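Checklist before submission:
- one chain only
- standard amino acids only
- sequence pasted in full

Submission:
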Amino acid sequence: MSVRIEPPRTARQARPASHRPVAAPVPTSEDFAPAPSPDGRRVAFLSDRAGSPGVWVCEVDAGAPVALPMGDEPVLALSWSPDGQWLACVVAPGGAPRTELWVLRPDGTRRHQVAGFGRRSAALAGWLPHGAVLAVTETDEHGQALLVDAATGHRRVLAQGDLLTLLDVTPDAGVALLRRGPRNARWLELLDVATGERRRLFPDTGRGSTDQGWFGPDGTSVLARTDAYSELAALVRVDLTRPEQPPTRLAGRSDAELEHVTPSADGQRGALLWNTYGGRSELSLLDFASGVQRAVAAPGEVLGDVVFAADGGLLCLTAQGPVQPREVWLVDPSTGAPRPLRPDTGAPRADDAGVAPQLLDLRARDGLPLSGWLYRPAGPGPWPTAISLHGGPEAQERPGYNPLFQALVAQGVAVFAPNVRGSSGFGRSFVAADNLAGRYGAIADVAACADFLVDAGVARPGQLGVLGRSYGGYLVLAVLVNFPGLFAAGVAECGISDFRTFFAGTEPWIAAAAVSKYGDPQRDADLLRDLSPLTHIDRLDVPVLLIHGANDTNVPAGESAQVAQALADRGVPHGHLVLAGEGHDFLARANAEAARTATTGWLTRHLAATATVVG
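Returned file contents:
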């Protein structure tokens, strides 16, 4: 079933590019990851308004939010127990990828850790329907699915295994739903907790991945988001009483990928988040029994963090846009009407400066269709131009809030943010197109973007830069060594420089999951050596800024350090910024701003940009 949905309407529109000077917005605080109380009267959420992501609680439609005491470490995720007595918080000590699970009362008392001890990293799947028992995955060399009592910390291990994630448990805890497998090749398994017997939910189609699933309300079915049966991910239902039958398609679209599904606590309906071409969000509510799907007006260009209150009377989400920081919005499921949690959301503010990006289509050198978002400075082009490469690679450049792009545009630098092959949001084949030796194509896609921008009159030859973080940081280094002379400068943030040292130094579960995407360190050693920028570092002869979090255990900080040393040995101009107290993602606002300031300064200086407006 599909439904046509009106294009999203943003709460605040960015200004289209014009010949008038544009001031860069001052980065503001963001509110995200809402967790409504079971009765829908209060909403807990994360905010970096105090400098680092912490927990805040607000009465719906009344009063100012109140901060809860969670210590100095950043909080990444949040959930309210069905009995209303506990908040569960995923905490990242030192900003590192290895996380802990803590619980506390909604008034801030009785805070204690319940999972993620030692070298294990904890992820929260959710709560059992009644009481306060958490479904948790702990990971180190292997995965461990367990149930944890929030009050006592008592732990019950359900299963152990490689690349294992717990998704759901039946109310009696008799059957668990597990996700298994590496990136882009995941499947679901049913576990009989009493016997330990496992069976695959549906047969292997030989393609695609299934990454989300939950039990239906009666426990005799499983609903799953998968692209194993279609190019674009869709919602299917598996009848557990008739396992021989193929899954039934409940919702799918030919013009949009199903990004995420949030079921209500009673399992009767779901909130479906759709990713339309280019990355704009659309939202609908689906009645699982009748199949009726109803569109909900989108309060922003990009939506996320969708969650129902336990009683089903409130739906929370976050919305953002080019000049709209992430903000919490509330939706009445009966009417579909959105309203902001914070009363001043949607009102003009001093930081509402910026330009709206334009979605452009182009072709890769081998003919593959590509696209990207172009942010134009004021005045006529061509301009000094920076190509920005997102992380992942199974992620997507979308028209969300990005103060770095607006800061560069205000300095007279155009920004083109493409989705090269390997990006999500464009279907199963596109996201897998850079696997293994396909990575050469992804690197060439960046060069194709540079050619396109020059030919289109956007970029000035000799004044092209490239920047990116995480996988995008890898691509920066890879394109600089594979296409010398094409770019005048680069900024690589938290990027892999040598696959051999990456696989040896990253977290074991990250390494195991990455084999399907990058290659096996032993079997594909020659391929990985050639794809490693450090192998060809003698070809890199333009100024490069390297930025890394000191506590990064996803892409260890040594990946940037060894590039800095190699460039220093050859006398190549470079900068090396290491941010203390940060991991793979820069969570403290001060550190994120330091990285933005350094990036903007580096590119404007080395691309010889003329500032349009300063301040």
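Reviewer check: Residues 1-13, 17-22, 610-615 have pLDDT under 50 and may be disordered.
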